[in-house]
Amino acid sequence: MRNRMIAGNWKMNKTFTEGVVLAQGLVRELEGGTGDVDVVVCPPTVDLKGVSEVIEQEGAPFSLGAQNVYFEESGAYTGETAPDMLVGIGATHCIIGHSERRGYFGETDEDVNRKAKALMSHGIVPISCCGESLEVREAGTHVSFVVEQIKKDTAGLKIDDPSKYVIAYEPIWAIGTGKTATADDAQEVCGAIRETLAEAFGQEVADGIRILYGGSAKPENVAGFLGKDDVDGALVGGASLKADSFAAMVKAAM
Ligand code: PEP
Question: Per UniProt, where does substrate bind (predicted)?
């Protein structure tokens, strides 16, 4: 049985103080608990410490995730953050391979794979993103495109506990555009992802890995995605920037 997951990607939004205020607001919104739903918030790197303190001091019912990591342990990599540093600040999850990092910063599937290995060796749960462009979708090759991404992103991973590796399917054309994939579109690709995982890691492991949908998910449409067999939650951008809308999505998943 897979617990659902709702993860918020704040992207490059919220100053340190604004991040603390948002996290405190989320604590209030979720004071009744989150049931079996795993909730993760992923602030910008400079906000991690502040949100970590809110989680610790207020006993928040959510976990802390980073938005990026570098795969080396330490050294001359100006501007980067090592897995160990994330552990030290209380992060338990980390987004990797987001389409914005692939598109603007040249992150490749090989990088995503190395980052997943580095995170997992430090006990951090990767939230590994995949998804096709509008061009690929219109060419009708989106399923094979994403399957290839998954094969490269997961190559050689050792997944002992499938609850500790998460995939987010995010069609690029639906991110921040207000244009959502339908629940059936999401299921088509998420189902293919699970089959690919079963071929690589066996059915039992594949059945334990959470596959999230992301792309203009909001309180009004999240239930439709969650109703699909292979969609286990959502990675939320815009709608995670307000405590009430993000909390409403968590409640819809409960
Ligand atoms: C995202 O960037 O991960 C995302 C899903 O963004 P939005 O919800 O704003 O489309």
Answer: 9-11, 176, 216, 237-238
Extract the annotated binding site for substrate.
Answer: 9-11, 176, 216, 237-238
Cα(41) to ligand 1 centroid in Å equals 13
Whether the Cβ atoms of residue 51 and residue 63 lie closer than 8 Å to each other: no
Tens of pLDDT, residue by residue over 179-212, are: 879 999 999 999 999 999 999 999 999 999 999 9
The partner residues of 96 in beta bridges, in order of sequence, read: 128
Q: What is the pLDDT of residue 1?
A: 77
Domains of the chain and any CATH numbers: 5-253 (3.20.20.70)
Taking each continuous run of H as one helix and of E as one strand, the counts in the chain are 11, 8
Taking CA atoms only, the protein residue closest to ligand 1 atom 6 is 237
User: CB of 3 within 8 A of CB of 163?
Assistant: yes
CB count in 10 Å sphere of residue 72: 13
Report the alpha-carbon angle 98-144-140, nearest 5.
95
The answer to whether the beta carbons of residues 254 and 37 sit under 8 Å apart is yes
Average pLDDT of the chain? Answer: 97
Question: What DSSP string runs through 15-37?
Answer: -HHHHHHHHHHHHHHTTT--TT-
